Amino acid sequence: EHIRRGASASFDLTINRQITSTQSSHSFTMTKSLIRTASLAVLGPLALYTVFWSLAVIPFFQRHFLYAHKFNTLFWSDVNEPERWGFAKHQVAPFYLKTPDDNNMYAWHVLPLPLYHKHEDQIVQGASSETVPLDITSTESFRLLKSDPKAKLILYFHGNAGHIAQMFRADSYHSLTDTSSYHVVAIDYRGYGHSTGVPSEEGLIQDAETLVNWAMNVAGIPSHRIVLFGHSLGTAVASGAAE
């Protein structure tokens, strides 16, 4: 009897030791797992941060980080069809401007909607058969801008990333033209959308100056009837052009 009790007590003690050992092992495993997770949580972002700043010192990546000009939706949205963004047929005339350093700068001329409705038949009939007219000055839209001695023009400079109609930009053009008498001409800077070239600070300022010169010397709009409108990055561009 004493032997059986002793054996039973010894067996219970062994089981308790095994349970304690198992619990300790499980606790140690959980601790290691928590330490590993915490390390990844700290080291992961640190590694990404290090990679980001390592790339940021390279001019190629600096340009893409700053201007984000390749982040656009051109592969599923055709900016040569402005009607996709709620504009009336031929209310918007896409065209190109040539910069002094021989880049092609893509632009939209958005007619004020009240003026469009007043001359809709002439605008549609006088629209170019080309998707993007080679000569914007031959269109009825341009004639309405140039021949009006009271015409007011907003030159719109968008922010970084995307293209001329991406995000809320088309909504901005609507808000500026749906109930007013203002014409809007918006551009895609070099390297953005369908515009050629590579963006740079000097290049974007030159693009803006090209548009201002076109507005004054080709469209014939005096400076007191021109508004420079910039959003985000475009505010710096507009300020540079104004200087």
From TrEMBL:
InterPro entries: AB_hydrolase_fold, Hydrolase_4. Signal peptide: none annotated. It comes from the Eukaryota. Pfam families: Hydrolase_4 (PF12146). The keyword Membrane applies. The chain crosses the membrane at residues 38-61. Keywords: Membrane, Transmembrane, Transmembrane helix. Residues 151-240 form the Serine aminopeptidase S33 domain. This is Serine aminopeptidase S33 domain-containing protein.
